[in-house]
Fold this protein.
Amino acid sequence: MAYSCSLFHSSLASKSNFPLLHHRNHPKFNRPAPIVISCSSSSTFDPSSTTSSSNNNTPSPQKNRRLADENIRDEARRHRSTAKNTLSAKYVPFNAGPDCTESYSLDEIVYRSRSGGLLDVQHDMEALKKFDGAYWRELFDSRVGKTTWPYGSGVWSKKEWVLPEIDPDDIVSAFEGNSNLFWAERFGKQFLGMNDLWVKHCGISHTGSFKDLGMTVLVSQVNRLRKLKRPVVGVGCASTGDTSAALSAYCAAAGIPSIVFLPANKISIAQLVQPIANGAFVLSIDTDFDGCMKLIREVTAELPIYLANSLNSLRLEGQKTAAIEILQQFDWEVPDWVIVPGGNLGNIYAFYKGFKMCQELGLVDRIPRLVCAQAANANPLYLYFKSEWNEFKAVKANTTFASAIQIGDPVSIDRAVYALKNSNGIVEEATEEELMDAMAQADSTGMFICPHTGVALTALMKLRKSGVIGAGDRTVVVSTAHGLKFTQSKVDYHSKEIPDMACQFANPPMQVRAEFGSVMDVLMKYLGDKAPKH
């Protein structure tokens, strides 16, 4: 059955210079024009088209099929707009004042400012503000669920806010993002007395962690740099597991060599095997993450290896799209709280940046309060927060089940503090027993989360217990990696094999003889215990 409808947005008709890389626009429609929303069983939303499929109530099933010898890149290239791009971005010193004139092209290989500080990607906000919030909401919403290159990605569906000047041919994407926003109904009700608790499953992604969101941006830019003949032979990172998995996968997709520095015996087998399987050159180094980070920074200063750690601000441009996506999934309503696990601390700033851009460009009228959750065994930000931001001291990170945030000297400390101060944010911590218990409790309600998400849920439990977070507050917990990467920690917990840990929510298998009577006895007792009490 075919159906169609259209809605003309006259408020957008005056936006005549918008530099979009459109969906499937016919060449004669490659000029910017008013948005037309076409709702049809066989049509797609074309933000550049001046006609609507509503004029044809029985469209051909093949109407939007690409040519037989085309792939989706070819199709996007054929339909590309010839409109001049008016959007841009550049590197500037992080948190620089209005009088600062230091800046760098994104095509330069630079990681620090002249003073040695962090860099940030700054977008031309005046150019972006030529289009109102309604325009951006409609544009971003129109790309969800499509396979049009590169907008099928949750990151590149916001391309104008990420890398506005990159050619789509240079983009390396696995259509990452668009991850599930899970209503944690039973967990919220049973353990917290909440009915509006959500878990953003960023770990349901190409390599099983949120790092894909940033790595698609970084590797795409490296792909561009190599085509521009910049001195880049490979890409390298220090990693506690997830960064190396994302880097190796995206580099493999692009045919770019990847080099990974891993701390020996400090990451899970599932995390270790990913870069190996994707063909990365893996160095297992007898140090911790901070030691690996020091080495990779020294090496990239001497060799034509592009640094992929979050010291590089390009990755944060991709990671910020998860914040935009949360707003999108709530139909552009702002949650009260967003809780993010924190290790090297780039992600908490990325979420802040995504929310703040949406506020500044009129998509929403406020931003949520942010919470950064740290493992007590690696908690320099928490200690800094508890000192009322008086003095930051790096710590020696102790072993934690939340291995990806086992970082004692975070690169993005200044970014994290800025984000928290400007969002009226809070920092909490979780002991090993707390985070493992929280993980087990969440799993018992139908999730299968990583230990890092257990850290974030522990922070939520503490803030809920203290009354800081109310029963009716809409709260989002960011799950940063897939639980399947951390099955050994779950096995150890449910086997009660973790020293000095009660594992109070363990659920070990019941050993039963292969006899009907024995099985019946065990099942009768189990069902009796589970029967509703009247």
In short: The chain has 17 helices and 14 strands.
